[in-house]
Amino acid sequence: MNEIHDAIIIGARVAGTITATLLARHGHRVLLLDRAHFPSDTLSTHFFRAPALRAFQRMGVLDEVLAVAPHLATDYNVVDGIIFPEPVTEPEDFPFYLCVRRIALDDILVRRARSVPGVDLHEGAKVDGLLREGEQIVGVKWIENGSSYEVRARSVIGADGIHSFVAREVGPQVEREEPVNRAMYYAYFRGVEQKDGPAAEYHYRGNHLAYVFPCDGGLTLTAISVPIDEFGNFKRDPEGQLLRELQAMSAFADRLAKAGREGPVRGTGSIPGYMRIPFGGGWALVGDAAMVMDPWSGQGIDQAGTHAVFLADELHAFLSGEKSWEQSMSRYHQLRNEFSERTFTRTCTFGRDLRPMTRKALERRGLV
Ligand SMILES: Cc1cc2nc3c(=O)[nH]c(=O)nc-3n(C[C@H](O)[C@H](O)[C@H](O)COP(=O)(O)OP(=O)(O)OC[C@H]3O[C@@H](n4cnc5c(N)ncnc54)[C@H](O)[C@@H]3O)c2cc1C
Fold it and tell me: Which of ligand 1's atoms lies nearest the C-alpha of 160?
């Protein structure tokens, strides 16, 4: 491959497909590489809100996403046995949430990216090197079907997730950092009786949180977030521990007894928090490659989708000659931080202990 692309994007899920699609729609030539073959699942629950929906709207997949799962229009909150359901009234454009399994959501995104003229998607393509000219990143090397390839581009984008190869290679500075505070594990059930709304359910028990979210495929996602020092219990007995946690949530236990689990229990206790400076000479990072927070607040898809839109718009400004690389990427960095810093702080603060947050929520409503 001798041609020079406008952008090479590594990673073809939320951040990568949105960036690629928007850039190609502006007329830029994009090489999109992912080591996975789609449809492909990934370790993630998948609750998202208006910011992700707005990004999907920009990408042109909103109707398809909205059609696959119930619109969750009620917050069904339970704090240590006190129940207070509330309708979701904001924001005006999307007053509801969605929960779509990643195997389904990412497939919608990948199919759309693949269909856009200007996006050249390679699946099963593992990036294993960056091309450099001095301090500048000018291309990538990858392996596909046992053969090695390399190609040059005007920009190299790491949308390659929390274990980003691009980030490892370029060594970005870190602006904010938080240690691992919590673990999360999850599984799907069929036959869970839904609360009216339908509702997104949050069951708090001290510093433990169980989520019950109706999702696509007629399934219900259940997830548990616990302090990290309790992750050992899960590793010793994933199925038993998930059941014990769910049974301990008094407003859910009866309904759980009538439902059946589908598929394995999966989890992780290795998600820290970080905000990296998301660009340098010839490269930029987006999505989890640039910023990660504990998944208890279910923010990753909203954040990755929104940042991808910011990046695509600013990359377009650079590629079309309207702005210099430094100007466009500084603006991307600024927009990313303006959108995300408060959420990052809140997620880290209450990730250490959920109880100050739930106590305030009860006080605000006169429930304690
Ligand atoms: C347990 C858990 C629960 C979560 N729950 C939620 C939730 O409820 N709601 C929410 O919004 N977020 C949640 N998140 C966060 C969410 O999963 C991420 O924020 C989101 O996936 C980020 O998307 P991304 O496109 O940046 O990266 P990813 O989805 O990680 O995609 C990265 C892609 O890069 C590819 N890749 C990596 N390295 C290479 C390479 N060298 N060559 C080629 N390809 C490569 C991978 O194959 C992958 O397809 C959760 C995360 C975890 C771990």
Answer: 34
Q: Is residue 168 part of a domain?
A: yes
Q: Is residue 139 part of a domain?
A: yes
Q: Is 47 in the pocket of ligand 1 (CB under 6 A)?
A: yes
As a whole number of Å, the CA-based R_g of the chain is: 21
Separation between Cα atoms, residue 258 and residue 220, nearest integer Å: 13
Question: How many domains is the chain partitioned into structurally?
Answer: 1
Whole-model pTM: value is 0.98
The CB of 295 under 6 Å from ligand 1? The reply is yes
- 182 Cβ inside 6 Å of ligand 1: no
Nearest CA to ligand 1 atom 53: 44
C-beta 120 within 6 A of ligand 1: no
State the average pLDDT over residues 301-324: 98
Any domain includes 155: yes
Decide if pLDDT at 113 tops 80: yes
Locate the ligand 1 atom nearest the alpha carbon of residue 13 and give its number: 25
Does residue 38 have its Cβ closer than 6 Å to ligand 1? no
Q: What is the DSSP secondary-structure string of 66-108?
A: HHHS--B-EEEEEETTEEEEEE---SSS--SBEE--HHHHHHH
For 119-157, b/e burial (b = at least 16 CB within 10 A) is bbbbbebebeebbeeeeebbbbebeeeeeebebbbbbbb
Q: What is the pLDDT of residues 149-161, one digit of tens each?
A: 999 999 999 999 9
User: What does the pLDDT look like over 5-41, one tens digit per residue?
Assistant: 999 999 999 999 999 999 999 999 999 999 999 999 9
Q: If you average pLDDT over residues 106-112, what whole number do you get?
A: 98
Full residue range of the structural domain in which residue 26 is found: 4-71+103-178+272-352
Residue 368 Cα to ligand 1 midpoint, Å, equals: 39
In a domain, 320, yes or no: yes
Ligand 1 atom with minimal separation from the 40 CA: 49
For tokens 């990660």, name the residue. 292
CB 368 within 8 A of CB 362: yes
What is the residue with the minimal CA distance to atom 12 of ligand 1?
300
Q: Is the pLDDT of residue 208 over 90?
A: yes
Q: What CATH number corresponds to the domain at position 330?
A: 3.50.50.60
